[in-house]
Amino acid sequence: MSLDAIGIACENIEKSSQFYMLFGLEFKKFGDDHMEGSTSSGVRIMLDSFKLLQKIDPDWKKPIQPGLTLCFKQSSPKEVDLLVQKIKSNGYQVVKEPWDAFWNQRYASVLDVDGNKVDIFSDL
Fold first, then answer.
1. What is the CATH number of the domain that holds 107?
2. Measured at the alpha carbon of residue 42, what is the angle toward residues 37 and 47, in degrees to the nearest 5?
3. Total structural domains in the chain?
4. Is the pLDDT of residue 24 over 80?
5. CA distance 61 to 70
6. What mean pLDDT do residues 70-80 have?
7. Which of 76-104 are b and which e, b meaning 16 or more Cβ less than 10 Å from the residue's Cβ?
8. Which of 76, 92, 106, 123 is most buried, judged by most C-beta within 10 A?
9. Residue 20 lies in domain
10. Are 29 and 4 in contact (CB under 8 A)?
């Protein structure tokens, strides 16, 4: 078994794709309500509009609080710092600035446009 994809519920998939493109993802659009991009490790990131999710499941409700954190590994501590600065300069919220964590990683946390937590890290 292998993890193939992660689906993210989005209020606006265009705005969400702009955020995730800062991580190097390139998205292909499948209709108005679905986009997909792949990480360098091959895991697909799927962006689905709230509208599509409600069409698939009429009982679907927007989560009150996200329960999932995506973690993107970078090649070096400097890459963590540069990506967080790029995210901040594009107007997105940084929850925790880069720091040297006690578990021997450079670590930072940001929020995507829908309030989902995204961690950025590298080995020290």
1. 3.10.180.10
2. 25
3. 2
4. yes
5. 21
6. 97
7. ebeebbebbeebeeeebeeeeebeeeeee
8. 106
9. 5-56
10. no
Quick one: pLDDT at residue 108?
98
Mean pLDDT of the chain: 95
DSSP string, 53-78: HHHH-TT----SS---EEEEE-SSHH
Is 45 exposed, middle or buried (CB count within 10 Å of its CB: 0-12, 13-18, 19+)? buried
Give the separation between CA 59 and CA 64, rounded to whole angstroms: 15
Tell me, rounded to whole angstroms, the distance of Cα 70 from its chain centroid.
6
Measured CA angle at 124 (ends 111, 117), to 5 deg: 10
CA distance 75 to 39: 14
Six token digits for residue 100: 């040297």
Say whether pLDDT at 66 is over 80.
Answer: no
- The residue among 66, 78, 81 whose CA lies nearest residue 16 is 66
Q: Domain check: are 87 and 115 in the same one?
A: yes
